[in-house]
Amino acid sequence: AGSNIRSQGAPGHTSCVKPTDSLSVLLHIILSSISVLTVTLNLLVIISISHFRKLHTPTNFLLLSLAVSDFSVGFVWVFMTFLINGCWFLGAGWCIFHSVLGSVATAASIGTVVLISVDRYVAVCDPMHYQTKVTKNRANICIVLCWVGSTVYHTVMFKDNIEHPGGFDSCAGECTVYFPPHAGVMDLIFSFIIPVSIIVVLYVRVFMVAVSQAQAMRSHVTVVTLQSSLKVNRSELKAARALGVVVVVFLMCLTPYYIVLLKTGFGVKSASSFIFVLGLFFFNSLLNPVIYVFLYPWFRKCVKCVFSLQILKSGSSEANIL
């Protein structure tokens, strides 16, 4: 997503002048607040899942990957404050770093949401084989491949910019990123069309299974021998509903960004609309840990343990936080 960010300096000037109007100050405060909240909340998720062994499950490892990508996006928000009114004061190297990090983090989050959808599909549609099909090692391998693939893909995309930092700026104080003409189409296909198609298809299947199971339980026609598997399904369905909220919110924040890009032909013609949808896409990184607070009791317990410093006690990692 970050690969389409363009920041234009004031045309005809050799350098930017730092904005001092009240609107710019207000935007700095808002962006800074969002950044701090995003980084803090996702750091709590990272600490919680990393510290407590009871939370070391394939599904939670996927949530950990999502939290790391959201944490990185929150960190990128810090740099976004320097792009208000088109002025960049951190140098060409940091400009490229900010752009690459934002792109890699957002692509990794998209890939992780796809993996979460696959995880819930197997858990709900094939619960008897879930433990053997979805293991910690396989989950970790998929997560690593997701991050490595995202990094390699965007390193290639940013190749010209990495080799010539600042080479595409027309004046001092700009942060302009150049991409080959086909980059926008590839970004649309690999970052939106394919992932969203997989997510929607898998979650529609999960929803259909959930509805059929609910009808079976209401009609009391369940065979006694299937009661144990239904218990598994009930817990997995509860997890699927919680993660379904994460997925739906993610799609709501992601879709407007690509709709605007399609309408403008991958060229930013309306700065205000582009900034809004890009901000909405990044704002999703703040919403994810907020969703956990409401849907996961274990996360609320972990937050209490962190702020009360109980995690510093010996053996705290073995505590039954569930």
Automatic annotation (TrEMBL):
<dbReference type="GO" id="GO:0005886">
    <property type="term" value="C:plasma membrane"/>
</dbReference>
<keyword id="KW-1003">Cell membrane</keyword>
<keyword id="KW-0472">Membrane</keyword>
<feature type="transmembrane region" description="Helical">
    <location>
        <begin position="271"/>
        <end position="295"/>
    </location>
</feature>
<feature type="transmembrane region" description="Helical">
    <location>
        <begin position="188"/>
        <end position="211"/>
    </location>
</feature>
<protein>
    <recommendedName>
        <fullName>G-protein coupled receptors family 1 profile domain-containing protein</fullName>
    </recommendedName>
</protein>
<feature type="domain" description="G-protein coupled receptors family 1 profile">
    <location>
        <begin position="41"/>
        <end position="292"/>
    </location>
</feature>
<dbReference type="InterPro" id="IPR000276">
    <property type="entry name" value="GPCR_Rhodpsn"/>
</dbReference>
<feature type="transmembrane region" description="Helical">
    <location>
        <begin position="61"/>
        <end position="84"/>
    </location>
</feature>
<comment type="similarity">
    <text>Belongs to the G-protein coupled receptor 1 family.</text>
</comment>
<dbReference type="InterPro" id="IPR050569">
    <property type="entry name" value="TAAR"/>
</dbReference>
<feature type="transmembrane region" description="Helical">
    <location>
        <begin position="239"/>
        <end position="259"/>
    </location>
</feature>
<keyword id="KW-0807">Transducer</keyword>
<keyword id="KW-0812">Transmembrane</keyword>
<keyword id="KW-0675">Receptor</keyword>
<keyword id="KW-1133">Transmembrane helix</keyword>
<feature type="transmembrane region" description="Helical">
    <location>
        <begin position="25"/>
        <end position="49"/>
    </location>
</feature>
<dbReference type="GO" id="GO:0001594">
    <property type="term" value="F:trace-amine receptor activity"/>
</dbReference>
<feature type="transmembrane region" description="Helical">
    <location>
        <begin position="139"/>
        <end position="156"/>
    </location>
</feature>
<dbReference type="Pfam" id="PF00001">
    <property type="entry name" value="7tm_1"/>
</dbReference>
<keyword id="KW-0297">G-protein coupled receptor</keyword>
<feature type="transmembrane region" description="Helical">
    <location>
        <begin position="96"/>
        <end position="118"/>
    </location>
</feature>
<dbReference type="InterPro" id="IPR017452">
    <property type="entry name" value="GPCR_Rhodpsn_7TM"/>
</dbReference>
